[in-house]
Design a protein that fits this description.
With 461 residues, the chain is mostly beta strands. It contains three helices and 38 strands. The chain has one domain: Methylamine Dehydrogenase, Chain H (7 Propeller). Strands 25-24-23-22-38 form a five-stranded antiparallel beta sheet, with no helix packed on it. Strands 26, 27, 28, 29 and 30 form a five-stranded antiparallel beta sheet that branches. A four-stranded antiparallel beta sheet has the order 1-37-36-35, with no helix packed on it. The radius of gyration is 24 Å and the shape is globular. The protein starts with a helix and ends in a 6-residue tail after the last strand.
Length: 461
C-alpha cells in the first residue's frame, strides 16, 4: 500500500514539473491568448513575488575631477524649498529662453538678460513653465490656460472648470487638451474655443497624447480611447467599452514614426494610430509607466525596473541590460555612434543615494563603462560636440569624458542648503541652459540638434 502511494505521488511530481516547464516555455503565447488586461494582472502578481532590491553598498571613493569647469556663464533666481517657487525652464527657441517665475512668464536672452515679463493670475499657486505652441506660448496656472504671443501679449485665456495645477495634458498644432472638474477631458483651440469634452467621472485617467493628424488618445484604466478632431470615437483598445477598472492605466506617447506607444507597469504596446491595430506588444517587464521611453532611428528604448531594453521596429527585444540596485532610471539617450547612455540613481546604505552614468553598446547590448557620481542624477545625458557627456544631479552638473572619466563638476548654487535638484538640461547655440530652482547657463559646445526624449513623469512635456 505504501509503495503504491509513493509511486502515485512521484507520478504527480513528475507531471507537475513537466506542466510547469511547459507553461514557462509557452508564456509568450499563453499571455498573447489571454489578452492585454490579463497581461497586467499576471505581471502584477509576478512583481509581488519578486524580491525587493536591496540597497547598494556605498560607492567606492570617488575620483577627483580631472579638470575645472569652464569659466563664464550665468545663473538667475533664488534658492527655494519647493520646486515651483523658483525660476523654472520652459522651452528654448531662436535665442530666447522662456521660463516661469511663480506667477509670471519670463523671456530671457541667451546671455541672461530679461527681455520681457508677463504677470498671470496671482491666485494660482504656481505657473507651469511655458511651452512653444506653434508661433505662440502655452501656459497653465491655477484654473486657467493662457496662450501668449512670443513677445508676451495675451492671445487668449481660458478658464477650466475645476481645473488644477496639472490641468494641461497634451497639445499639438493649434489644439490642446486640459482636465477639469469631474475628471473631464476638454479639447480647446488656440483661441480658447471648446472643440469637444468627455467625462470620465468614475475612472482613473492615465496618459493623454495628441498627434498632428487631429487625433487625441486617452488612457483610462487599462483601456485606450482614440477620438478625432471633433471628439468622435475612432477606436478603443483593450475591450469593448471603458466600463472596466483595469489594474493599470497606460501612459501614452506618439513616436517620431507616428506610432502610438503605451506603457504600463510591466508592458509596452505599439498601436497603429488610425485604427488601434496592435503592431506589437512586449510584456517582459522592460517598460514602465513611471520612467521613460526614447527613440533612435526606428528603434525604441525603454528604462524601468532596473532594466534598459532596446526594441526593434517590429517589437523584437534586441537586448536587455539589468542595472541592479537602481531606484530610478532616466530615459536612455542614443548617439550617432550607436552608444546608449543611461543616467540612474542608486540606493545607498545610509539612504542618501548617489548617481551613476552607464554607457551601453547598442550593437551588442553590453555595458562599456559605468561612472559613479556623488549625487543622485535627475536629468538625461546631453552629449557635447567633442563627445563629452553632461548630466545633472542634486545642485550639480557633471562632465564625463567619452571613456567614462569624470572631468569636472559644478555647483548650480554656491551652497547646498535649500538648493533643489537639476531637473532639465537643454542645448542652445552658446551652451547648456539648465533648471533647478533657478536657471543657469554653462558655456560648453552642444549641438542644438541633440536628441530630445519623452519622459512619462511629465506627460505634457
Amino acid at each position: 500500500m505504501t509503495t503504491s502511494f509513493s509511486k502515485a505521488r512521484w507520478r504527480l511530481v513528475v507531471l507537475g514539473v513537466i506542466a510547469g516547464t511547459a507553461f514557462f516555455l509557452a508564456r509568450p503565447w499563453v499571455y498573447k491568448a489571454l489578452g492585454p488586461v490579463t497581461f497586467e494582472i499576471v505581471a502584477s502578481l509576478s512583481r509581488l513575488t519578486e524580491p525587493k532590491p536591496k540597497p547598494t553598498p556605498a560607492p567606492p571613493r570617488l575620483p577627483r575631477p580631472a579638470g575645472q569647469p569652464p569659466s563664464g556663464g550665468w545663473s538667475l533666481g533664488e534658492a527655494h524649498t519647493y520646486p515651483f517657487d523658483g525660476l523654472r525652464l520652459g522651452d528654448v527657441d531662436s535665442g530666447v529662453v522662456y521660463a516661469a517665475d511663480r506667477h509670471d512668464v519670463v523671456a530671457l536672452t541667451l546671455d541672461g538678460q530679461e527681455r520681457w515679463r508677463k504677470a498671470l493670475d496671482s491666485r494660482a499657486t504656481r505657473v507651469e513653465p511655458p511651452r512653444l505652441f506653434g508661433s505662440s506660448l502655452l501656459v497653465s496656472g491655477g484654473d486657467k490656460v493662457s496662450v501668449l504671443s512670443l513677445d508676451g501679449k495675451v492671445i487668449s485665456e481660458t478658464a477650466v472648470p475645476g481645473g488644477n495645477e496639472t490641468g494641461l495634458l497634451a497639445f499639438a498644432n493649434s489644439r490642446f487638451v486640459v482636465r477639469g472638474s469631474g475628471n473631464t477631458v476638454r479639447a480647446l483651440s488656440a483661441d480658447g474655443r471648446e472643440l469637444w469634452a468627455r467625462a470620465f467621472e468614475k475612472h482613473r485617467l492615465g496618459g493623454v497624447a495628441m498627434d498632428h493628424e487631429g487625433r487625441t488618445y486617452i488612457a483610462v484604466e487599462g483601456r485606450v480611447l482614440a477620438v478625432d478632431a471633433t471628439g468622435r470615437d475612432l477606436w478603443k483598445y483593450g475591450g469593448k467599452d471603458l466600463e472596466y477598472s483595469g489594474p493599470t492605466a497606460y501612459l501614452l506617447a506618439v513616436g517620431p514614426n507616428g506610432v502610438l506607444y503605451g506603457t504600463s507597469a510591466w508592458s509596452i504596446v505599439a498601436l497603429q494610430p488610425s485604427d488601434g491595430h496592435v503592431l506589437w506588444q512586449d510584456i517582459s517587464g522592460g517598460a514602465c509607466a513611471g520612467d521613460g521611453i526614447s527613440w533612435h532611428a526606428d528603434d525604441v528604448y525603454t528604462a524601468c525596473n532596473q532594466t534598459v531594453t532596446a526594441h526593434a521596429a517590429d517589437g523584437r527585444a534586441r537586448w536587455q541590460v539589468k542595472l541592479g540596485g537602481t531606484s530610478r532610471l532616466l530615459p536612455p539617450v542614443v548617439d550617432e555612434s550607436g552608444t546608449v547612455y543611461v543616467a540612474a540613481t542608486y540606493l545607498a546604505g545610509s539612504g542618501n543615494g548617489y548617481g551613476a552614468l552607464t554607457a551601453v553598446s547598442d550593437a551588442s547590448g553590453k555595458t562599456v563603462w559605468t561612472t559613479i557620481l556623488e549625487r543622485p542624477l535627475t536629468t538625461r545625458p546631453l552629449k557635447g560636440t567633442d563627445g563629452v557627456l553632461y548630466v545633472g544631479g542634486d545642485n550639480r552638473t557633471y562632465a564625463v569624458s567619452p571613456a567614462g572619466q569624470l572631468l569636472w563638476e559644478r555647483q548650480v548654487q554656491p551652497r547646498d542648503n535649500g538648493a533643489l535638484p537639476v531637473t532639465r538640461l537643454e542645448p542652445t547655440a552658446v551652451g547648456i541652459v539648465g533648471s533647478a530652482d533657478r536657471i543657469f547657463m554653462i558655456p560648453v559646445a552642444i549641438s542644438t540638434e541633440a536628441p530630445r526624449t519623452f519622459s512619462w513623469r511629465r506627460t505634457w512635456y
